[in-house]
Amino acid sequence: MSAESTERRILSVLEEDAQASYAEIAERAEVSKPTVRKYIQKLEEEGVIVGYSADVDPKKLAGQSIALVGIDIASDCYVEATRNLKEIPEMEELYTSSGDHMLMAEVRAMDGDSLADVIEDKILALDGVTAAHPSFLQERLK
After folding, report:
1. pLDDT in tens, 17-49
2. Which of 29, 35, 47, 96 is most exposed by smallest CB count within 10 Å?
């Protein structure tokens, strides 16, 4: 088996279950525990694995609304606006995009009104942000 396929198998197990023990990962990836330890350490050092987290369904938590927001920015303001967007506490995730918008963001707030306030008062208020197009999430299917 190639090193690349070993890495992919280990990462696949971690993506399914970030809490899996080295023994569980080794069994599921069909490698030894020392191999798992070596590859995970290497992947962490290289920045491939950037952290471990719980996959939480925010809609199950009391009082939370979520929107995926497409954001457009004037090109001469891109760097500064992106820095400022990353500082918004309600901004859970922020991605560059090759789709209809320059950036895609996951924004969370207590309710729909609070979410609208974040979009209007914190995102659209930033210099250089030219548009924000929210899609409010209703139900998590997977």
Report:
1. 888 999 999 999 999 999 999 999 999 999 888
2. 47
What is the C-alpha to C-alpha distance for residues 104 and 131, in angstroms, rounded to an integer? 12
Beta strands in 1-142, from DSSP E residues, in sequence order: 65-73, 91-96, 103-109, 129-136
Give me the domains of the chain, ranges plus CATH numbers.
6-46 (1.10.10), 65-137 (3.30.70.920)
pLDDT tens-digit profile of 83-117? 999 999 999 999 999 989 999 999 998 888 899 99
Calculate the average pLDDT of the chain.
88
DSSP 3-state assignment of 99? Answer: coil
Q: How far apart are CA 120 and CA 131, in angstroms?
A: 10
Q: Is the dihedral of CA 108, 50, 126, 75 positive or negative?
A: negative
Under a CB-based contact definition with an 8 Å cutoff, are residues 106 and 68 in contact?
Answer: yes
**100 CB neighbour count, 10 Å cutoff:** 9
